[in-house]
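Collaborator request, handled under Task 6.
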Amino acid sequence: MVGDDPHLVFIHPGVRPRTPGVCEDCVRAGTTWMHLRVCLTCGKVGCCDSSPMRHARAHAHVAGHPIVQSLEPGEWWRWCYIDEDYA
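Structure tokens returned to the collaborator:
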């Protein structure tokens, strides 16, 4: 599926993480996170599905921004929450 995802049109080239290094929703709520993901549509940083609050997934569903990229050092993969597959 990689490269064939029809949701790649949601990616905005040059998007930058709005809050590098922190999940903005976890900071606001006072909760913790495991790993960070950046929305490739708007740059919102959220926590991964292994984190208690799963903010990246919640943002994807509420905002309609389906594709995130890992912000972990050395990781370059993207995930589509609609297809539940790498994008």
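The cover message to the collaborator said: "DSSP finds two helices and five strands in the chain. The first strand starts at residue 36 and ends at 39. Please let us know whether this matches your experimental observations."
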